[in-house]
Protein backbone atom coordinates (compact mmCIF):
# COMPACT_ATOMS: atom_id res chain seq x y z
CA UNK A 1 0.00 0.00 0.00
CA UNK A 2 1.61 3.27 -1.12
CA UNK A 3 1.27 6.52 0.76
CA UNK A 4 0.94 9.95 -0.75
CA UNK A 5 3.04 11.71 1.90
CA UNK A 6 5.70 11.03 4.52
CA UNK A 7 3.26 10.06 7.26
CA UNK A 8 3.36 6.51 8.55
CA UNK A 9 0.18 4.49 8.67
CA UNK A 10 -0.92 3.63 12.21
CA UNK A 11 -1.69 -0.06 12.65
CA UNK A 12 -4.09 -0.81 15.49
CA UNK A 13 -4.48 -4.31 16.87
CA UNK A 14 -8.08 -3.96 17.96
CA UNK A 15 -10.72 -5.97 19.76
CA UNK A 16 -8.85 -6.35 23.06
CA UNK A 17 -11.50 -5.02 23.99
CA UNK A 18 -13.50 -3.65 21.11
CA UNK A 19 -14.76 -0.36 22.57
CA UNK A 20 -11.32 0.62 23.84
CA UNK A 21 -9.97 0.20 20.30
CA UNK A 22 -12.67 2.46 18.91
CA UNK A 23 -11.92 5.03 21.59
CA UNK A 24 -8.23 4.96 20.63
CA UNK A 25 -9.09 5.95 17.06
CA UNK A 26 -11.27 8.75 18.47
CA UNK A 27 -8.44 10.00 20.67
CA UNK A 28 -5.93 9.90 17.81
CA UNK A 29 -8.29 11.90 15.62
CA UNK A 30 -8.90 14.47 18.37
CA UNK A 31 -5.18 14.87 19.08
CA UNK A 32 -4.02 15.61 15.55
CA UNK A 33 -3.28 19.28 14.91
CA UNK A 34 -5.30 19.31 11.71
CA UNK A 35 -6.86 22.01 9.57
CA UNK A 36 -8.01 19.62 6.84
CA UNK A 37 -8.82 15.92 6.45
CA UNK A 38 -5.50 15.50 4.69
CA UNK A 39 -3.57 16.48 7.83
CA UNK A 40 -4.65 13.28 9.57
CA UNK A 41 -2.62 10.06 9.38
CA UNK A 42 -3.89 6.86 7.84
CA UNK A 43 -5.06 4.19 10.27
CA UNK A 44 -5.65 0.48 9.79
CA UNK A 45 -7.44 -1.50 12.47
CA UNK A 46 -7.56 -5.27 12.53
CA UNK A 47 -10.00 -6.33 15.23
CA UNK A 48 -9.56 -9.72 16.91
CA UNK A 49 -12.23 -9.86 19.65
CA UNK A 50 -12.28 -13.67 19.49
CA UNK A 51 -8.80 -13.72 21.05
CA UNK A 52 -8.69 -15.69 24.32
CA UNK A 53 -8.84 -13.51 27.43
CA UNK A 54 -5.34 -12.38 28.41
CA UNK A 55 -5.94 -12.28 32.16
CA UNK A 56 -7.61 -15.71 32.19
CA UNK A 57 -4.62 -17.17 30.35
CA UNK A 58 -2.09 -15.65 32.75
CA UNK A 59 -4.10 -16.85 35.75
CA UNK A 60 -4.20 -20.36 34.30
CA UNK A 61 -0.43 -20.30 33.77
CA UNK A 62 0.13 -19.36 37.40
CA UNK A 63 -2.16 -22.15 38.57
CA UNK A 64 -0.55 -24.70 36.28
CA UNK A 65 -3.77 -25.36 34.37
CA UNK A 66 -4.50 -25.34 30.65
CA UNK A 67 -5.95 -22.38 28.74
CA UNK A 68 -5.90 -21.20 25.15
CA UNK A 69 -3.08 -18.74 24.50
CA UNK A 70 -3.96 -15.36 22.99
CA UNK A 71 -0.51 -15.10 21.38
CA UNK A 72 -1.23 -16.85 18.02
CA UNK A 73 -4.14 -14.47 17.33
CA UNK A 74 -2.04 -11.43 18.19
CA UNK A 75 0.92 -12.54 16.10
CA UNK A 76 -1.35 -13.21 13.13
CA UNK A 77 -3.00 -9.82 13.57
CA UNK A 78 0.42 -8.13 13.62
CA UNK A 79 1.31 -9.82 10.34
CA UNK A 80 -1.98 -8.75 8.76
CA UNK A 81 -1.37 -5.12 9.77
CA UNK A 82 2.18 -5.24 8.42
CA UNK A 83 0.99 -6.71 5.11
CA UNK A 84 -1.73 -4.06 4.85
CA UNK A 85 0.86 -1.27 5.00
CA UNK A 86 1.08 -0.26 8.66
CA UNK A 87 4.27 1.62 9.50
CA UNK A 88 4.08 0.58 13.13
CA UNK A 89 1.64 -1.19 15.45
CA UNK A 90 -0.09 -0.13 18.66
CA UNK A 91 -1.89 -2.62 20.88
CA UNK A 92 -4.52 -0.90 23.08
CA UNK A 93 -4.53 -3.58 25.76
CA UNK A 94 -2.23 -3.33 28.77
CA UNK A 95 -2.36 -7.00 29.76
CA UNK A 96 -1.38 -7.95 26.19
CA UNK A 97 1.98 -6.28 26.84
CA UNK A 98 2.97 -9.47 28.64
CA UNK A 99 3.35 -10.93 25.12
CA UNK A 100 5.15 -7.87 23.71
CA UNK A 101 8.45 -9.54 22.79
CA UNK A 102 6.72 -12.42 21.01
CA UNK A 103 4.47 -10.05 19.07
CA UNK A 104 7.55 -8.12 17.93
CA UNK A 105 9.12 -11.35 16.64
CA UNK A 106 6.20 -11.86 14.25
CA UNK A 107 6.84 -8.69 12.19
CA UNK A 108 9.57 -6.45 10.81
CA UNK A 109 7.86 -3.16 11.67
CA UNK A 110 8.01 -1.55 15.15
CA UNK A 111 5.45 -2.45 17.81
CA UNK A 112 4.98 0.37 20.32
CA UNK A 113 5.75 -0.62 23.89
CA UNK A 114 2.68 0.63 25.74
CA UNK A 115 4.18 0.15 29.19
CA UNK A 116 7.57 1.77 28.51
CA UNK A 117 6.01 4.86 26.96
CA UNK A 118 3.53 5.35 29.79
CA UNK A 119 6.13 4.93 32.53
CA UNK A 120 8.46 7.40 30.82
CA UNK A 121 5.63 9.89 30.31
CA UNK A 122 4.60 9.75 33.98
CA UNK A 123 8.20 10.27 35.09
CA UNK A 124 8.47 13.27 32.76
CA UNK A 125 5.46 14.76 34.50
CA UNK A 126 7.50 14.83 37.72
CA UNK A 127 5.22 12.32 39.44
CA UNK A 128 7.00 9.99 41.84
CA UNK A 129 4.20 7.92 43.38
CA UNK A 130 1.19 6.50 41.57
CA UNK A 131 -1.61 4.06 42.33
CA UNK A 132 -2.19 1.45 39.65
CA UNK A 133 -5.64 0.22 38.64
CA UNK A 134 -5.36 -2.68 36.19
CA UNK A 135 -6.43 -6.26 35.59
CA UNK A 136 -5.30 -9.07 37.85
CA UNK A 137 -3.11 -10.25 34.98
CA UNK A 138 -1.28 -6.93 34.77
CA UNK A 139 -0.96 -6.54 38.53
CA UNK A 140 0.28 -10.06 39.26
CA UNK A 141 2.67 -10.21 36.31
CA UNK A 142 4.29 -6.92 37.32
CA UNK A 143 4.79 -5.97 33.67
CA UNK A 144 3.75 -2.37 34.21
CA UNK A 145 5.07 -2.01 37.74
CA UNK A 146 8.60 -2.91 36.57
CA UNK A 147 8.62 -0.09 34.03
CA UNK A 148 7.45 2.47 36.58
CA UNK A 149 10.11 1.38 39.04
CA UNK A 150 12.75 1.55 36.29
CA UNK A 151 11.73 5.18 35.86
CA UNK A 152 11.91 5.77 39.63
CA UNK A 153 8.13 5.98 40.07
CA UNK A 154 6.77 4.19 43.14
CA UNK A 155 3.69 2.05 42.58
CA UNK A 156 0.91 1.58 45.13
CA UNK A 157 -1.18 -1.49 44.33
CA UNK A 158 -4.77 -1.88 45.59
CA UNK A 159 -5.51 -4.15 48.52
CA UNK A 160 -7.30 -7.40 47.51
CA UNK A 161 -10.79 -6.02 48.23
CA UNK A 162 -10.12 -2.89 46.20
CA UNK A 163 -8.57 -4.92 43.38
CA UNK A 164 -11.67 -7.10 43.25
CA UNK A 165 -13.78 -3.96 42.78
CA UNK A 166 -11.48 -2.78 39.98
CA UNK A 167 -11.97 -6.10 38.22
CA UNK A 168 -15.74 -5.80 38.61
CA UNK A 169 -15.60 -2.38 36.97
CA UNK A 170 -13.62 -3.77 34.04
CA UNK A 171 -15.62 -6.93 33.44
CA UNK A 172 -19.09 -6.18 34.83
CA UNK A 173 -19.47 -2.48 33.99
CA UNK A 174 -17.40 -1.93 30.83
CA UNK A 175 -17.03 -5.18 28.91
CA UNK A 176 -20.74 -5.91 29.38
CA UNK A 177 -21.65 -2.52 27.89
CA UNK A 178 -23.27 -1.22 31.08
CA UNK A 179 -21.51 2.16 30.75
CA UNK A 180 -23.24 2.87 27.44
CA UNK A 181 -26.34 3.76 29.45
CA UNK A 182 -26.40 7.02 31.42
CA UNK A 183 -27.17 5.30 34.72
CA UNK A 184 -24.43 2.75 34.15
CA UNK A 185 -21.92 5.45 33.22
CA UNK A 186 -22.68 7.46 36.36
CA UNK A 187 -22.50 4.36 38.54
CA UNK A 188 -19.12 3.37 37.10
CA UNK A 189 -17.74 6.89 37.59
CA UNK A 190 -18.87 6.96 41.21
CA UNK A 191 -17.27 3.57 41.91
CA UNK A 192 -14.01 4.54 40.19
CA UNK A 193 -13.80 7.83 42.08
CA UNK A 194 -14.46 6.10 45.39
CA UNK A 195 -11.69 3.58 44.74
CA UNK A 196 -9.36 6.41 43.67
CA UNK A 197 -10.12 8.35 46.87
CA UNK A 198 -8.77 5.48 48.95
CA UNK A 199 -5.51 5.35 46.99
CA UNK A 200 -4.99 9.11 47.01
CA UNK A 201 -5.46 9.10 50.78
CA UNK A 202 -2.62 6.58 50.98
CA UNK A 203 -0.25 9.02 49.31
CA UNK A 204 -0.60 8.41 45.59
CA UNK A 205 -0.17 11.58 43.54
CA UNK A 206 -2.25 10.19 40.68
CA UNK A 207 -4.17 7.04 39.84
CA UNK A 208 -3.03 5.41 36.62
CA UNK A 209 -5.83 3.83 34.61
CA UNK A 210 -3.79 0.80 33.64
CA UNK A 211 -6.52 -0.94 31.69
CA UNK A 212 -8.05 0.45 28.52
CA UNK A 213 -11.52 -0.56 29.73
CA UNK A 214 -11.10 1.91 32.59
CA UNK A 215 -10.29 4.56 29.98
CA UNK A 216 -13.84 4.15 28.73
CA UNK A 217 -15.21 5.19 32.13
CA UNK A 218 -13.13 8.35 31.87
CA UNK A 219 -14.39 8.85 28.33
CA UNK A 220 -18.00 8.83 29.51
CA UNK A 221 -17.11 11.26 32.31
CA UNK A 222 -15.51 13.62 29.79
CA UNK A 223 -18.54 13.43 27.51
CA UNK A 224 -20.87 14.09 30.46
CA UNK A 225 -18.56 16.86 31.76
CA UNK A 226 -18.31 15.11 35.12
CA UNK A 227 -14.64 14.10 34.86
CA UNK A 228 -12.56 14.58 38.00
CA UNK A 229 -9.49 16.75 37.55
CA UNK A 230 -5.99 16.13 38.86
CA UNK A 231 -6.40 12.50 39.89
CA UNK A 232 -6.25 10.17 36.87
CA UNK A 233 -3.62 9.43 34.25
CA UNK A 234 -5.19 7.65 31.30
CA UNK A 235 -2.77 5.23 29.61
CA UNK A 236 -4.86 5.19 26.43
CA UNK A 237 -4.44 8.97 26.05
CA UNK A 238 -0.67 8.55 26.30
CA UNK A 239 -0.72 5.76 23.69
CA UNK A 240 -2.81 7.89 21.33
CA UNK A 241 -0.42 10.84 21.63
CA UNK A 242 2.53 8.53 20.93
CA UNK A 243 0.79 7.11 17.86
CA UNK A 244 0.15 10.59 16.46
CA UNK A 245 3.78 11.59 16.99
CA UNK A 246 5.16 8.41 15.40
CA UNK A 247 2.85 8.79 12.41
CA UNK A 248 4.45 12.12 11.51
CA UNK A 249 1.22 14.06 11.95
CA UNK A 250 1.19 17.18 14.08
CA UNK A 251 0.20 16.73 17.73
CA UNK A 252 -1.96 19.44 19.27
CA UNK A 253 -0.05 21.40 21.90
CA UNK A 254 -2.62 20.70 24.61
CA UNK A 255 -1.87 16.97 24.23
CA UNK A 256 1.91 17.22 24.28
CA UNK A 257 3.53 15.38 27.18
Verbal overview:
The structure is a single chain. This protein has a four-stranded parallel β-sheet. By secondary structure, the protein is an alpha/beta fold. Helix 1 packs across helix 10 and helix 8 (160-174) packs antiparallel against helix 9 (182-201). The protein is globular. The longest helix is centred in the last third of the chain and has 20 residues, at 182-201. The model has no long low-confidence stretch (mean pLDDT 93). Helices cover 50% and strands 11% of the residues. The chain has helices at residues 18-31, 54-63, 71-84, 100-105, 114-124, 136-141, 143-150, 160-174, 182-201, 212-223, 235-247, and strands spanning 10-14, 43-47, 88-90, 129-133, 154-156, 206-209, 232-234.
General shape: globular
Number of strands: 7
Biggest sheet character? 4 strands, parallel
CA radius of gyration is: 18 Å
What is the rounded distance between the termini? 31 Å
Which runs of at least 5 residues are low in confidence (pLDDT < 50)? none
Task: Please sum up the structure shown.
It is built from 11 helices and 7 strands.
Layout of SSEs?
Blueprint: E1 10-14, H1 18-31, E2 43-47, H2 54-63, H3 71-84, E3 88-90, H4 100-105, H5 114-124, E4 129-133, H6 136-141, H7 143-150, E5 154-156, H8 160-174, H9 182-201, E6 206-209, H10 212-223, E7 232-234, H11 235-247
Parallel strand pairs: 1-2, 1-3, 4-5, 4-6, 6-7
Amino acid sequence: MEQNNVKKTIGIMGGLGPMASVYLTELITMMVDAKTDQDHPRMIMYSIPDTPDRTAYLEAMREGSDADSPLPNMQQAARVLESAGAGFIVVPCVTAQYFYDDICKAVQIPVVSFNVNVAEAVAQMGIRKIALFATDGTIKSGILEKEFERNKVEVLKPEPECQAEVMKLIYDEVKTGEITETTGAKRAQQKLNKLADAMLEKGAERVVLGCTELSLIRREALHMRTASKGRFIDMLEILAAKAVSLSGAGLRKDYEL
